Amino acid sequence: MNRKNMLIILILIISSFSAFSQSNEILDRYLEREEADGATTLWLVYVYSGSLSENSVPADAMNLVLESRYGRRFDGKTGEEPVRYGDFAAVVMDELDIPGGLFYMIFRSPRYAAREFTAKKWMPGNPDPFEKLSPWQVLTSLAAVSAWKEEQL
Questions:
Q1: Residue ranges per domain, the chain?
Q2: How many Å apart are CA 48 and CA 52, to the nearest integer?
Q3: Residue 132, strand partner residues
Q4: What is the pLDDT of residues 12-57, one digit of tens each?
Q5: CA-CA distance, 122 to 89, in Å (whole number)?
Q6: Are 140 and 90 in contact (CB under 8 A)?
Q7: Which of 30, 68, 105, 128 is most enclosed, with most CB atoms within 10 A?
């Protein structure tokens, strides 16, 4: 997929959130950060997947993630902590039921989820699974996953 299509998808994702003023405020605060916080990043994933409505708040995403397979990785966190690449990739793959490669299917770990994202070129660059993400990386990645999901239909 070329950069022009990625930009269009990114704009569509952002504009779909801006339909509601609350989500627009959340997105504005998120984009002002240098590092993507866990709560808002999870909120974006859950809103995209349909598990949360646009009227929800990032704290709702923190409660929802605790019920998931990766909840223990977020237990005891406030949501203000920066999200790491592996954790982000694992939650996205789990929430959107994205099949992975052999090692991901065996271990289901954030490390192999990040490797899947990198191999499929869903994340710009080649970040380490423990690297903290920027909001731009998160939104670009979600746009790439969204485009891939649409191609699968």
A1: 3-36+82-152
A2: 8
A3: 84
A4: 666 555 445 667 888 889 999 999 999 999 999 999 999 999 899 9
A5: 10
A6: no
A7: 30
So what's the pLDDT on residue 18? 46
Rounded average pLDDT over 98-115: 94
With residue 117 as reference, give the H or E element that holds it. Answer: helix 110-119
Residue 47 near residue 146, CB atoms below 8 Å: no
Joined tokens for residue 23 = 């989500």
Structure tokens at 59: 């704290």
Q: Any idea what DSSP says for residue 67?
A: T
pLDDT band with cut points at 50, 70 and 90 for residue 120: very high
Whether 38 and 80 have beta carbons less than 8 Å apart is answered as: yes
- 144: buried, middle or exposed (CB in 10 Å: 19+, 13-18, 0-12)? buried
Residues in the chain: 153
What does residue 42 show for φ and ψ, rounded to 5 degrees?
Answer: -65, -40
8 Å CB contact between 46 and 63: no
